[in-house]
Amino acid sequence: MRTLNTMTFLICLLTALPSISQDRIGFAVYQDARLGIIGDKEHGYKAGTMDVLIRLKMQGKQQKYGYMTVFPEFEYAEIQGLYKRWSINAGYAFNRLFVRNTEASISIGFGLMDRYSMGFLSMGANGELAYKITDGFKIAANFQLVQRKDLDYMWGGNNIRLSGHVGIEIKIWK
């Protein structure tokens, strides 16, 4: 119960903080590139298997090299046992780089995952490279390392997985 209270407090705190210095809100949707394009023959998943990552990205005020970002995230994968993961993440996006209209961001997050109707705590890290097509539309490649305690439960050991997603971000406010 204490873990749930701590998680609820952190989600409320991290969600409320950006509203004080909000500059922009975006909605992002990504698909796992490998499952979408070639599948995973080792585990029996065909090309086109859905593994969708959805984010509500809250951007802080522009600083010298970029801006702080906070985002709740939901991932849903149509794999055996239906994989669902909710997390809250915070990071920094560098948007004043050498290549115009390009952003590189890093973030860390904490969340909960559900698989086979069992809940697990999870931590993760993200790296994203985005290209701004217009002021309100970006295409992006996202790479994440996620602590997969569902796999620990199924197979034993310490399972940290790297995955890559491709997607879009659309500005919905400001």
Any overview of this molecule?
The protein is of the alpha+beta class and 174 residues long. The chain has one domain (2-173): Porin (Beta Barrel). Helices cover 18% and strands 58% of the residues. The chain is built from 3 helices and 8 strands; from the N terminus they run αβαββββββαβ. The chain has helices at residues 2-20, 33-37, 149-155; strands at 22-32, 51-60, 66-77, 83-94, 102-115, 118-134, 137-147, 160-173. It has an 8-stranded antiparallel β-barrel. The radius of gyration is 17 Å and the shape is globular. The model has no long low-confidence stretch (mean pLDDT 90).
Notable traits:
174 residues; alpha+beta; Porin; globular
